[in-house]
Design a protein that fits this description.
By secondary structure, this protein is an alpha+beta fold. Helix content is 32%, strand content 23%. The chain has a 6-stranded mixed beta sheet, sandwiched between helices. A 3-stranded antiparallel beta sheet has the order 1-6-7, with no helix packed on it. A hairpin with a 2-residue loop joins strand 11 and strand 12.
């Protein structure tokens, strides 16, 4: 678990955002090809910690509340220094600094491997994350900019981003479908491969029913290992419907699972609030409900939410799925829904 190191007999003085916010904010002009993530990175600001702050500062200059306009001026959030100033109040009042510790997870890729502790709000909780398809099965397919794109790559990228969010709040996370050499990717077109494995390092079967049974067995065995702990399952898919059908994010649960319904509803309510805040002129049409005919919904032990992100064949939904800023926002909002679900127990 991630832990900040504390020393006895010392007075802790946090360098707070409110004091720093009094300073004037840096402004930059968006260039062609810039997104929120790339703009923040170019200005030495963590896009994953300050994404929401950037949107709040610049909402009137964002298309669809998430996209930049080339040539417009944007404010860059002030960075809260990730250091704690330690003042020895008993002896010589000498000042020292000590970094808050982070933990590295190779599965996120070299650029995104470090996870800094945000809180301990989910400490002791177990989360199983399953991205749809993988291995020999790419899932739904479509073509974008004359290149093939596949459901499993985008579902996996969102799942990794969600895992990082949950780890940052102290959770224990099992990523069930894994690709050790992909990591979190900030590209629009995610290259298709077939080398995903099932936790810990099992080959994914070609047969669909065998694949589903493999996932159920892995999750249920882990669930039995952690009996007595707070455990939840989140499954992420990208839907495939007719090209003309634009869909919002949908959430499903087991018909008879009170906890599963609450988890799905908590994430759904978070999405409703985010759309109302960041896209007030757009009606959010996503729903949550039960779909017990889905194999993973029927057979797995943990309370679960099954999420359909969008229609990979629809041009509007492709913008949501392919834009790394949007994938980060989706993961962050799902994470906030998970926190809401747990803290309203």
């Amino acid at each position: 678990m991630l832990k900040a190191v504390f020393i006895n007999s010392l007075l802790f003085l946090n360098i707070g955002f409110s004091a720093m916010a009094q300073d004037s904010l840096k402004t930059v002009i968006a260039e062609k090809g810039d997104g929120i993530l790339s703009l923040l990175r170019k200005n030495d600001v963590s896009p994953y910690d300050y994404y929401d702050d950037f949107i709040k500062l610049n909402i009137i200059n964002l298309r669809d509340s998430v996209h930049l306009y080339e040539g417009r001026v944007y404010q860059i959030p002030k960075v809260v220094v990730n250091r704690i100033q330690l003042v020895d109040s008993i002896q010589s009042q000498s000042k020292k600094t000590k970094d808050i510790k982070s933990e590295a997870f190779a599965i996120f890729g070299n650029k995104h491997k470090n996870v800094v502790e945000k809180s301990k709000r989910l400490k002791g909780n177990i989360y199983y994350l399953v991205s749809g398809h993988g291995g020999p099965d790419p899932g739904a397919m479509a073509v974008y900019a004359k290149k093939a794109i596949a459901e499993d790559e985008y579902a996996y990228d969102i799942t990794l981003r969600l895992a990082k969010e949950l780890l940052g709040h102290g959770a224990t996370v099992y990523i069930i479908i894994r690709d050790e050499n992909d990591g979190i990717r900030d590209d629009r077109i995610l290259e298709i491969d077939r080398d995903e494995l099932a936790y810990p390092k099992e080959t994914i079967p070609l047969n669909q029913l065998a694949r589903l049974k493999q996932r159920v067995t892995i999750i249920n065995d882990l669930y039995n290992t952690h009996k007595g702990a707070y455990q939840r399952l989140i499954v992420t898919h990208v839907d495939s419907r007719s090209k003309g059908q634009n869909i919002d994010v949908f959430f499903y649960h087991h018909e008879k699972s009170t906890n599963g319904k609450k988890l799905a509803e908590s994430i759904h309510n978070t999405f409703q609030k985010k759309y109302k805040k960041y896209q007030p002129n757009r009606t959010y049409a996503g729903t949550f409900g039960h779909r017990t005919e889905l194999y993973l919904v029927r057979k797995t032990y943990p309370a679960m939410a099954y999420i359909e992100i969008g229609n990979i064949k629809n041009k509007k939904d492709q913008r949501r799925i392919l834009d790394p800023d949007n994938r980060q926002a989706l993961a962050k909002w799902i994470g906030e829904g998970v926190l809401l679900d747990f803290e309203e127990e």
